[in-house]
Amino acid sequence: MTDGLPTEIDLSRPSAARVYDYFLGGAHNFEIDRQLAEQIASMTPNLAATMRAGREFLRRAVRALLDAGIDQFLDIGSGIPTVGNVHEVAQAANPKARVVYVDIDPVAVAHSRELLAGNDLTGVIHADLRQPEAILAASRAMGLLDLDRPVGILLAGVVHFVPDADRPADLLATLRAAAAPGSFLVVSHSTFEDQPQEMLDAQRLSARTATEITLRSRAEITGFFGDWTILEPGVVHMPLWRPDSPSDVDAHPERFGAFGGVARYDQPAG
Ligand SMILES: C[S@@+](CC[C@H](N)C(=O)[O-])C[C@H]1O[C@@H](n2cnc3c(N)ncnc32)[C@H](O)[C@@H]1O
């Protein structure tokens, strides 16, 4: 332990990042992760599609931020690098775009560092969303992001790993307070709203990973944006957030079990 975070890979329990990697077809997972993944998958047959819907939402949100002129991103809970990573999406549109990835999972961090070696405009931080000041201090020290300029803060599929006892709304308020006007916040978050029972049962299985998922209401998730301006179409089931084409929207967008939204920090008048 150097930074208060686990550096050893704990093979006695499944890891959320490695279970997620398995669902996305990655190679960075172990038997204990695959067993839990298969159990969750057998209970929620559309889980792989859900994971893809999450990545697709993130891609569309990052593109929207790039269109708005954002050229630096802080991606917290970034996970194990898979195809369509934020820096790939961002640097395809703007080769000078900078991305700092943050994750609590040592496997995710190690693989991110390996994948990004040689990409000078990206960095990786091993840190916990529950310590936002440490994330901000580490990203300042890294010198890649300039927090005096607008930044895109990305929290895709991660805030539901923070239980209410750790005051997620306060953590997000700390991150928002460090951002300059013109910054954006992207959040996607699992919900119990509009969900069938089998989805709720699968969620209970997450208690076996190092981090349990807390499902939240649309109102709670909307609250994470504070007083920032929520962009159209609001906090919606992920496929409904600015689909590339209307035909991309599933007949049951609620079946992916997560809301997504994007907000902008508008300079207060006066
Ligand atoms: C479901 S994955 C999402 C990956 C990526 N953001 C995406 O949308 O495709 C969630 C990630 O959040 C990380 N995570 C969970 N709790 C965290 C915390 N307290 N601080 C930082 N990362 C965390 C996990 O290790 C995992 O890699």
UniProtKB/TrEMBL annotation:
Official protein name in the record: S-adenosyl methyltransferase
Lineage of origin: Bacteria, Bacillati, Actinomycetota, Actinomycetes, Micromonosporales
Any one Pfam family match given in the protein's UniProt record, by short name: Methyltransf_19
Source taxon at top rank: Bacteria
InterPro entries cross-referenced by the UniProt entry: SAM-dependent_MTases_sf, SAM_dep_MeTrfase_SAV2177_type
Provenance organism: Micromonospora haikouensis
